[in-house]
Amino acid sequence: MQRRNTAPKTGTNGLFRAIGAIERAGNKLPHPFWLFWILAAVLAVVSLVLSLADVSVVLPQSGKVVAVRNLLSLDGIEFAAKSVMDNFAEFPPLAIVLVMILGVSVAERSGLLEALLRSTVVRLPGRWVTFAVAFTGMIAHIMSDSAYLVMIPLGALAFRAAGRSPVLGVLVAYVAVSAGFNASPLVNPSDAVRAALTAAAARTVDPGYDVTPVAAYFFSAVSAVFLAAIITLVVELVLAKRAEFSAPADEPAGEHDPARIHLAPAERRALKLTAVVFTGYVAAIVALLAIPGSPLLGEDGSITRSVVVSDISVFIALLFALLGLVHGRTTGTIPRMSAVPPIMTEGVSKIAPVLVLFFAASQLLAYFTWTGIGSVLAVNGADLLHSMNAPHLVILLAIAVAVALINMLVTSGSAMWAILAPILVPMMMYLGVRPESAMATFMIGDSVTNAVTPMSPYFVLALGFVQQYRKNAGIGTLMSFTVPIATAFLIAWSALFAVWYWLGIPLGPGIPVR
Description:
Blueprint: H1 13-27, H2 32-52, E1 56-58, E2 65-67, H3 74-82, H4 84-89, H5 92-109, H6 112-122, H7 129-139, H8 146-161, H9 166-179, H10 189-202, H11 217-237, H12 243-246, H13 265-290, H14 307-310, H15 312-331, H16 340-350, H17 352-371, H18 373-388, H19 392-406, H20 413-430, H21 435-448, H22 457-469, H23 475-503
Antiparallel strand pairs: 1-2
């Protein structure tokens, strides 16, 4: 069979040269772990220069004078030496992520999460397969990076079952998981990390400020449906019409059985039982919150400031552990209770690379706070923006675009927000912008270019799956699909936030957007 040449055309050569330049520049960046320590060294030198120049600022809200302190002084060295353990132990995302992963790992290992994703795909008619795979990719974000490993082959199977090109299924699943990474109808560990880092940054201005993992839940949940619709429109109206995505694909050796997409009887029984348990769990929480004077309620009986909202990660972890246990015991994937601790251990081991990053990031964040440079940058940056008299919405959208560009090189969202939050969040607070709004625009920029950057290891993973079906596929094949969707995401998602901000819709429970 004669194969179609999918090499990039002359008109796109400039784009691919630019992408190649980005890839080469990104490859020269050190590992994020070392990047944090390099930034710490730069911070130390800058603190020395600014302290010698007697740089200081007056905090607008408290009137307190903050002078830059020298990290290379005897006091700075003493602080750095004595605070290592406390910096790591008190790093805001650490405990939250560990607690959530204990519960999520049980649900994942039991097969519950994959069964839920498969049931989402098969429930819709074949003509809805694009939307089904795209929205299922949004749900899959609860699995963090494991979503790529589950959704990409699942997307291929779903499209094959619908009589369409599995290549198209691979690409739809990939862009849904990557370009829409920060949009989900479920609260996931990434939400907890972002919220903790945002809260830590906000407390440099307001010591009592708190940001919960559900602070932007309404926006994230609506974005999941919205972005799935955007993928569907772009794919069906434009990309699916291309010959290489509509022609039959080569059959890869060892292809999984397409029947794998359908649920076995035991899995269907388990899902029904977990649905009953889920309903009972939610009903019990609601009943406890309805009791006058309940210890779960916040001050003055507030639900938005209740323990359930402020410590939502604990309740989510318990829910996923309970549902995973029920599903696993029903299907046999968790044969006995003694298997649960090893499963949790395995789950924690999977995030070991994140914990290593957290150690370096926690030291940098502590140094940044101690020197006072964050306050100097935030106050002076706010003054500069105030003098420009730019509308808050314009500034927020500019942040989204800037983060999208940075994300081409620094693909770790938690690492990037650990660096940017201590500057952006206080700066926006001094302008009168809520920390959660700054976090929401970061979520947009941190997602949209994930599908485009060759710096992402999952870019290579997706290309490998495409090549299972199209032997002659290359970076150009993948880019020709992901660039249009990433561009559409940046424009459409930013427009959604602009409308959201203009209408004043709450970002999450009890969290106004402005």
